[in-house]
Amino acid sequence: MLVPPFRDVPTRSTPLARLLLLSLLAVLLASCAHAPPRNPLAQWVPSPNHNAREAILVVIHATTQDSVEESLETLRTANSGGPVSAHYLIGRDGALYQLVAEDLRAWHAGPGAWGTISDVNSASIGIELDNNGTDPYPSEQIDSLLKLLADICKRNGIPREQVIGHSDMAPTRKTDPGAQFPWARLAQEGFGRWPHVPLTDPPAGFDPALALRLLGYSSDDHAAVIRAFHLHYRGIDSQAAVLDDEDARILHALLAKPGMQATNVGDSQEK
Ligand SMILES: [Zn+2]
Q1: Model-level pTM?
Q2: Which superfamily, per CATH, for 57-188?
Q3: For residue 157, how far is its CA from the centre of ligand 1 (angstroms)?
Q4: 204-250 pLDDT, tens per residue?
Q5: Å from CA of 77 to ligand 1 middle
Q6: Catalytic center residues
Q7: Measured distance CA(164)–CA(159) in Å, rounded
Q8: What digits encode the pLDDT tens for the residues 125-146?
Q9: What's the whole-number mean pLDDT along residues 52-58?
Q10: CA 2 to ligand 1 center in whole angstroms
């Protein structure tokens, strides 16, 4: 917070100077204000039976920029595309930066949905990875991400499977973290959903479109969802408009996984 230049205020201030000083103090106080802890409309009868609101989802991003320095600027300023942020940023060398406290709502997800969650920012922790959208992810960066994910999931009680990509929840707008992102490596540590069981042909009547919705994908734009699914589970950026037999086998394996249930997780552009 800026310190007002009190030493420049005359000792015997004029009415105009006092008005300016009061206006400045009012602006400063307003900029420091948070939501009131108690609503004056109600009688305050505090209960100890509560805890902080908690995230139930982690969203992985690629910055699609060229350097950590550039992204630290973007994530902390009112940039030309509107203000955005994330809780964390990880450099290609594995350096880890935190920009927003986990119990606050960062502006990383934007419009979209996952399962029943339609305001993903309010329910998630966002992690940006310094990546231009096409380069492979260095092992140092992924090792740092795995360490952070283990920490976040443990402290927040987030199931390890509740880790998704930005493209999964915003398939019509986003392709990050992209086809190069090593979801299989994450799955070795239990992060994200992955078809670990041997792939087999699904039974007659298996509905791949329904399976996508059960995973958490929106049903709004089927072609965009197929593209997001291919980015995540096949490492390809396809223009396919239909799901093929391999997609059906992957979806069947994802849903056949023990304990798999229909997920219940669920404005610059990213507000
Ligand atoms: Zn993103």
Answers
A1: 0.82
A2: Peptidoglycan recognition protein-like (3.40.80.10)
A3: 23
A4: 999 999 999 999 999 889 999 999 999 999 999 998 889 999 999 99
A5: 17
A6: 128
A7: 12
A8: 999 999 999 999 999 999 999 9
A9: 91
A10: 32
Per-chain mean pLDDT for the chain: 86
Residue 181, pLDDT score = 98
Domain with CATH 3.40.80.10 in the chain: 57-188
